[in-house]
Amino acid sequence: MNRSVNIIIPFLIAALTIAAWWILNRPNDEPAWPTQIQGFSFSPMRADDDPSQKRFPSIDDIAADLALLEGRAHAVRTYTVESTLSEIPRLAAEHGLNVTLGAWIGPNAAANEIELMRLREILAAGYRNVVRVMVGNEALLREDITVTKLIDTLDRVRQLTYLPVSTAEPWHVWLKYPQLVEHVDFITIHLLPYWEGVPLDQAIDYVISRYNQIKAAYPDKPIVIGEVGWPSGGRRNRGAETSPANQTRFLRRFLDVAESEHYIYYVMEAFDQPWKLKTEGATGTYWGVFDADRQPKFNFTEPVVRIPHWRELAGLSVVIGVLLLTLLYRDSSTLSKRGKSFLALITYAISTAAVWIVYDYTLQYMTPATVIVGLLLLIGGVGVIVLLMAEAHEWAESVWLRGWRRPFPLRSVPDAQLPFVSVHVPAYNEPPELLKETLDGLAALDYPYFEVLVIDNNTKDPAVWEPVRDYCAILGNRFRFFHVDPLAGYKAGALNFALRQTDPRAEVVAVIDADYIVRPQWLRHLVPAFSDPEVAIVQAPQDYRDASQNAFKAMCMAEYRGFFHLGMVTRNERNAIIQHGTMTMIRRQTLDAVGGWAEWCITEDAELGLRLFEAGYKALYIPCTYGQGLMPDTFADFRKQRYRWAYGAVRILLHHRHELLGLHRTSLSLGQRYHFVAGWLPWFADGFNLLFNFAALVWSIAMIVAPDTVTPPYMTVALVPLVLFLFKLSKSLFLYRLRVTATVRQSLAAGLAGLALSHTIARAMFGGLITGKLGFFRTPKLAQAPAILRALADAREEALLAVAFLCAAIAVLQRNDAFMLDVRIWVAVLAVQAIPYLATVLVSLTSAWTQLAATLIGPMSAMDCHHANGIESPVTRVG
User: Membrane-crossing residues (predicted)?
Assistant: First the structure.
């Protein structure tokens, strides 16, 4: 049954995926392209040509382009007579094409004079196929010349030739300068509704209305449409969307109207112009009917399809989806139909989006820069896919399990059969009264056979450690105290020292932090799990008793709780928990067998757990509170703790990389490898996100400094961080509400606290990759909360980055093209990237404001065994 579900669900979702591709690509009938059109705007630049760099096409290239247009158009319109382009009239005559001859007018008066001299020479040659002369192209729009100077130039040229003379400007410029009309023989207007943000379905009516507006204003002057067209690629301009399909629709609709209304027009343009990328941005490149390789960009007669190759792309997205889903379904026997359907939907959505983004990116002209950027984006895209799949997998397993594979065993065992337990309490410079509370909790344990070893390492002040020593003596023979100074190896060194002092009768070693107060049932309930000889670790969650002190601690409590309610529960299903150094028990024999605690590692607990898994042992996680400690008092301490955890994770992954990748033979299962890599993947994502943030700021500065040449990043790529942020936010809020049983306030507080640590984790990722020399960070307890200024100082890096992103967003909005969709999306990206940094500042300030009541967040529900994950009671009682 499970196998058939694994086949049926992907098949159904694949069918929906193909149906979605089909719906989006249904063919639309449009008027057929005429056999021969009036004319093309003609710039015969090839991919390597660039007139701004004085690189012009060869005579042979120009002749080949004119030969391609022969029979397709009556005429071509040129823009300049510079260099080899002065040969166009002669070459066009050989192919039966008329020419509207253009002379370029720019801001350089001397260059204009040279251009007019060349124009005079061509006119003197008397080419009979030259039918009109165009002096200047949008020179007034660019403000390259004054209207008075342009009128003088037009008058000079009109004296040189009998041919009709004009200049070309958008329709509104002609209305602005009515005096210009008196000095031209006809009016040349540009009708490009894309640049005015007109949606495609309104574009033809818009063209007709503007044409009629000029005709009504100047009824005695003939009108020539010098440019009319639609780009196939580039930026979306308000309601105007660029695409090959939209270019096809617009031109075929316009040509149908133009032929019936007998317009004189030149389609903008014959060939794509890659060189315009530097002067007009990406959109300026894609106005051609033919691409830069002289291939037609669309079909001239058949129904229009948005993506002509959609069938191949749909098939590819399904294949990728199936491959990804096969990996996710490898170990999904306990996942319900809803869970498998959710994974299938997410997987196919991700694969479809990935295929479409890559396809869309490859439609642009590839330069060395775009190739390099594309490769970087591909690498980043693979990382995003892996991250999304891991997040979706955890989401599904947290919500839609049909039952537990590994119910948590709570056995009633007679005292005579219980093993001896050695409880180790490492301490460094802990307040004596705090440690006495911990010892009182251990003294009250309901367990017959145990000892407690307190190892105070490197505390210098006798007034700190001597009262603890004396209190252990009062508590009796079960409690032994050791003060060791010096002692290397940090916490791991202290635990290895304790291991050497452990009673030979001890079969189980338990570890708690010096601030934990355990419940009397801790050992009695959990030690019987070691009756399974393969179990090496029994782990209870970290929990805290000081969440009611203030809002900051209540916020931290909510953030901690997610890991123990969600991540650890799902990891336990595949025997892949992260061992954490308090509330943990280890079989003494296995601990000795693997060499004890790793003193090279600052997260020795997680490293030991991985080593035991590599040796083939099992671990059990019981999501029930059996002890409560204290949280960091300040945000500075909170972030130090998380930095240590993240840094240690990187060092562990590097140290065990061969084992995790399967290069060294171990007993690690695929599920264990998956969880140890995927579980820490979000932290690595924070690290790569920091690189993205610096790149985003650099790009934004370039957009601000050079707005005419630097456009926003590719829009589909810019959408990825927004989608990823929204997906992770939705997942977090949903799972917190459903599985952590948190309120909306607690869910938002947890998310805020987690975001506040993003920059710290990112720095830890790079720190762990670069150096292995970080010292152990002890998390201080009962520290005095910082003042407001100190809190701001603690978050100074994040505050500066937040200001940088917000200023960049505001500055980008000052661009003249701020109304463009891609600019607004990029501004949204900048704003979203500022959120984690703003969260850091806010959480740091909250930690300083100790008077802010915890009731603002609200108390978390107890972590008891009957509400651990909401599927069914995960605890079974045997006995």
Answer: 7-24, 313-329, 341-359, 365-390, 680-702, 714-736, 748-770, 825-849
